[in-house]
Amino acid sequence: MLKRLKWQPNQKGRSFRRLGSDGMDVVDDSWRVRLPSLLWIPVFIFGALLYFVDIFEIEFLSLQPTIESIKDFTYDSNKGFAINTPGCRIPEMDPFDPAVQPFILPPTRVKCNKGVPALFEANLTSIYILKSSLPAYNVSDFSDLHCCYSVIRRVEPKKKLPDNFFSNNEKCSYINGSTIIINDEFIKVQCFVDNTTIYTDTFSFVPIKNTTKSKVIYRKPLNVLVVGLDAVSRLNLHRQMPITVKYLQKLGAVEMLGYNKVGDNTFPNLIPVLTGLFEEELNKTCWPTQSSYFDNCTFIWHHFKSKGFMTVYGEDASWMGLFNYMRRGFKKQTTDYAYNYFNRYSENLIGNEHKMNVDQCEGARLVYKDLLEYIKKFVVRMNNSSLPFFGFFWGASLSHDYLNQPRLGDPDYQKFFQELEEGGHLNNTALVFMSDHGIRWGDIRQTYQGRMEERLPFVFVRLPKWYTNQFYKAYSNLKRNTRRLTTPFDLHETLYDLLDPYNLTGEYLKTTNKSRGISFFREITKYRTCEDAAIASHWCACQQSKELDTNSSEVFEVASFAVEFINMELQGYAQCANLTLMEILNARLMSHSGSDIEGVSNIKDYMITIKTVPGEAIFEVTVRYSEDERKYSVIGSISRLNLYGKQSACITDFHLKLYCYCKSLLS
């Protein structure tokens, strides 16, 4: 029992006295010093300062831990797992596992323009002639060459026509000299000898536009640059682009190991990033039909624009771009700058080396490298002009169609990031390097690992060091969430948080565990399941499974329902043939972790791979059987594992193209 101490002077000095058990005073020399009341004042002040620093995340007197002291957060044993939480388990897989090794082959190098070099090149502000290329055009006397340039402009579509119209000013300005400064955005260059055209090329620039209407409210705005690479899984990025990965790691980029797609292809996986909505929700709010423009929709760049940022959206292979493939695009240009229009014009004019779905070259230049050069020009021009920016770029020409082709771009992407970093252009920029899904077709896709990779694209997030030092709670949450289940909805919330990066402190970072989208800067609960994150069972990489006998009556009944479902989807399209089951290639019974199907009991999820005729299409379908209701249903969308090519040319609905086999091909 504690006894009250009282202060009394002592002959030996000051000490505490207490009453002993015999009633005599006992000296307690262990309490030698007691601070005067006034000395408590600085203690309280220091405590208040600690509280102030903690709440407002102020870097003061080195009270926060440095980046180096923040470890990679893991709360569970992750041995053998990329994600190992109560809500989700995703196995860690070897990029060079023997099961996928047969599909990892050297890519074929591309020879643009049949080896004929470009006659002109461009830098940040000018075009200049490459005199070393003159012999390739049979020009021996420079004075025999006459060149001029004309301006390319986007033309606003009319009467609900597609957004793919351009004007090329008939006036061709004479190029007087070997170098000329360009003040326009997009130009076409032509060269003649004896009135015969011997050379045509296109070039893009980033002139400063006076389009910003709002003032930036931040004391130091944080730019946002998103660089996308289509159809590359996390494992395939490590497999094909190790130099780039190593450099990003050197920069301190954080890799999201549990980033799980939420839809089949690019559109349903990027729309959540850009709007925070599912495709179906977009249909209900701002894009009612496939023939509608997207002008009534609010994209993430609109929020940045309202804060005074310059905005840019750019794609290569833009004929099949996010807003243009089987869609109308925009009536009004949606961002201040838009590279995709230039790419569309350029590929139509001088595109070559067309393979599968893409032109790999524009004249003598690789398409993907031209996109990287434009991104660099944009970033440099904005930084040189002290203009804050939001940029979203998407590259498909390198990686859309081939598993191994990204290997060719590895040194170029590494160089691109290095030049931005060493030029100081990432000092005030949040960088996101990402994909939408893994490769969706081909032999690798029919392996277990290929199926998992297709659902797990890569995402890297890199923040400036000054920012991570100052806002260490947001950064530590980002690090912690590397081993949590995350989605495109979370990435949208992350980008939205960067609208006000100085707000990522204290109470603001707290979040509810059941939110569909949770910013990477807020702690994501380890109990999160696919259902919590709005990931349909068909796309969920957290599930465990066991293989079933494809010859069993149970599996045959599930497969038959899947084919019947596809045929029902095609009802009303008389030009499409009725499909029948040819073969069951694989069947697995899926198990769910945590409360993945909350509120539903006695259900079974079957993931089956089937082949149908005519056309020998290969489909992967998740079919759910409810024992209570005694009925089947298809969960999520259906994956097409092989290419349909021209089999579905008779139909325009981009969803049903996966299923349709045109009757006209039967004759």
From TrEMBL:
**Organism of derivation:** Callosobruchus maculatus
Pfam families, per database record: DUF229 (PF02995)
List keywords of the entry alphabetically.
Membrane, Transmembrane, Transmembrane helix
GO cellular component terms attached to this protein's record: extracellular space
Q: Where are the transmembrane segments?
A: 38-56
Signal peptide limits: none
Q: Which Gene3D superfamilies match?
A: Alkaline Phosphatase, subunit A (3.40.720.10)
- Name recorded for this polypeptide: Uncharacterized protein
Q: From what superkingdom does this record's organism come?
A: Eukaryota
